[in-house]
Amino acid sequence: MHMPVLQKEVLEYLDPKPNENFIDCTAGEGGHALAALEKNGPRGKVLGIEIDLELYKKLKEDCLKWQFKQRLIPVNDSYTNLKEIVGREKFKNISGILFDLGMSSWHLEESKRGFSFQQNEPLDMRYSPQSPLTAKKILNYYSASEIERILKEYGEEQFAQSIAKNIVEIRKFKPIQTTPQLVEIIKRAVPSWYQHRKIHFATKTFQALRIAVNDELNNLKNVLPQALKILKPEGRLVVISFHSLEDRIVKNFFRENSKENLIKILTKKPIKPTVEEIKINPRSRSAKLRASLKL
Q: Kind of pairing, strands 94-100 and 231-241?
């Protein structure tokens, strides 16, 4: 079992107690769900939502080995349909909801969908292979100005214009299909000092494309009000984000609802991983956890 990000902190803020029900909106490989199931027995349940069919099948298979398997309800769907899923599953008395918005290790290492610039893979980047938009489609058919907008808005990429221009130039001669092709295009479009920083020069472009393909920011904006609505009073909402765009959405949502006296913010500042956790799992370094209590 992989170690989920900020697991100790998630348990502290979700605070699962015996017989309480929880929702893990991004179940992935089930790490956080399993941690909650260890605390909410003997009758508490966890509804685990996973959009990726392959990952959902893996979760179902793996949970057969758990002693708590009968208390996990896995669902293959998008968390944007949260209210509908809860109604369909007749899942009630919800004491806590978790969103871990990071990509799973499985997506980077095993999905073969081009999430990582360190692998040679087709540029797909979809969490749900049923959705029509791929990174390949954006790179080969969108205008230079639209690609630039995506890189600026979703990647906060300072060389968005030159990268977009280079993409449009290169695709005139050959379609852009694989991760190494895209990395090379980015490399040619940015100055040499940018190529030798701590953060890889392709990171922001890959992030931006992934967010655009999966409409991640709009999905988050749409689901947070649903989550708050279905939580019971004193229920807890915990969100782990991995970049400033997501964190800003969560921060603003909490602030607005706190002003309306609908929630109490439990984290004045976002909780970050310890130095020890970052050493064990370097991918956790950008994680930020915010939590609130429904009034």
A: parallel
Of 131 and 2, more confident? 131
Domains of the chain: 7-106+216-294 (3.40.50.150), 117-214 (1.10.150.170)
How far apart (Å, rounded) are the C-alpha atoms in residues 201 and 73? 40
- pLDDT tens profile 123-169: 999 999 888 999 999 999 999 999 999 999 999 999 999 999 999 99
Residue 113: pLDDT band with limits 50, 70, 90: very high
- Type of residue found at 275: V
> Six-digit token pair at 13?
């803020």
Model confidence pLDDT, tens digit, residues 52-65: 999 999 999 988 88
What Rg, from alpha-carbon coordinates, does the chain have? 20
Report helix angle 244-259 to 216-230, nearest 10.
Answer: 30
* 253 CB neighbour count, 10 Å cutoff: 21
What dihedral angle (degrees, nearest 10) is formed by the CA atoms of 254, 154, 213, 288?
-40
Kindly give the pairing relationship between strand 94-100 and strand 72-76.
unpaired
